[in-house]
Amino acid sequence: MTAISRSDVWYLFDYGMVISMAPEAADWAALEGAAGRELEERTSPYWAMREPFDAGKLTPKEYWSGVLGRAVDAAEVDALEAMDAMQWSHLNAETLAVLETLHTGQSNLALLSNMPAQMAGRYAAGSPWVGYFSKLYFSGELGMVKPDPRIFDHVVAELGAETRNVVFIDDNHANIATAGELGLNTVHYTPGMDLLDALSSAVCR
Predict the structure, then answer these.
(1) Which of 36, 57, 87 is the last residue of a domain?
(2) InterPro entries of this UniProt entry (predicted)?
C-alpha cells in the first residue's frame, strides 16, 4: 500500500467544479429559455435562492416558483429539475482519472457536496462517478451547507476518522478555510493542477 492509499486516510471530494465542469453556454440558454428569464448571472434568483435549496429548506416547487417569480406545476418542476441536473453533469476527465487511480489503489473515498436532495438522488441513482465512493454526503439531505463547521464535524464523525487523516478537496476558498480551521488537510482545487501530486503532499504533511 502506498502512502497516498493509506488505510487510515479519507479523501473527501467536492462535486461541483471539481468532479463536474461548469455548465456550458448552451445549457444556460436552454434553462433560461424554459424559465423565461436570465439565470446565469450571480445576481439572479437562481443563485440568490440556491443556498436554502441546497440546505433542504425549500422544496423543488418552492425553489423554482421563487426563481421564476410565479407558481409552477409539477410537470414544469420536473422539466426544470432535469435540465438543471443535466447542466451540472459534465464531468472533469482529469479528476475522474485521479479518482480511478485512488479507487484502484483501494483508497478511502467520500464525497461532500452542496446539492439539493432531489438532484443528489438523481445522480446517486445513475451517475458513473458514484461508484468511486464508499460514502456520499449531500447538504440537502443533511440540512446543512458548506462552509458551516457542523457539516464537516458530522461527516468526519460519520467516517470515524481523525480530522488530520481527512484530505478535503474543494474549489471554494471559504469551504477550504473552514475545513482547515477544523484540522482537516485541504487541497484547494484549481483547473489544470496536478491533483494527484497535491493529494500526495497533503497526506505527507
Answers:
(1) 87
(2) HAD-like_sf (IPR036412), HAD-SF_hydro_IA (IPR006439), HAD_sf (IPR023214), PGP-like_dom2 (IPR023198)
- Cα–Cα distance measured from residue 170 to residue 114, given in angstroms and rounded to the nearest whole number: 11
How far apart are alpha carbons 33 and 21 in whole angstroms? 21
Rounded Cα gap, residues 114 and 93, in angstroms: 21
Angle between helices 149-159 and 173-181 (to 10 degrees): 60
Which residue from 128, 151, 156 is spatially nearest to 138, judged by alpha carbons?
A: 151
Q: 147: cis peptide before it, omega within 30°?
A: yes
| Tens digit of pLDDT at every position of the chain (205 positions) | 466 888 899 999 999 999 999 999 999 999 999 999 999 999 999 999 999 999 999 999 999 999 999 999 999 999 999 999 999 999 999 999 999 999 999 999 999 999 999 999 999 999 999 999 999 999 999 999 999 999 999 999 999 999 999 999 999 999 999 999 999 999 999 999 999 999 999 987 7
Contact assessment for residue 64 and residue 53, using Cβ atoms and an 8 Å cutoff: no
pTM of the model: 0.96
Inter-residue contact 158 to 150 (CB < 8 Å):
no
Same domain, 39 and 100: no
Q: How many CA atoms lie within 13 A of 131 on its CB side?
A: 6
22: DSSP letter: P
Go through the chain and tell me how many residues it has.
205
Residues 54, 113: Cα–Cα separation, whole Å: 9
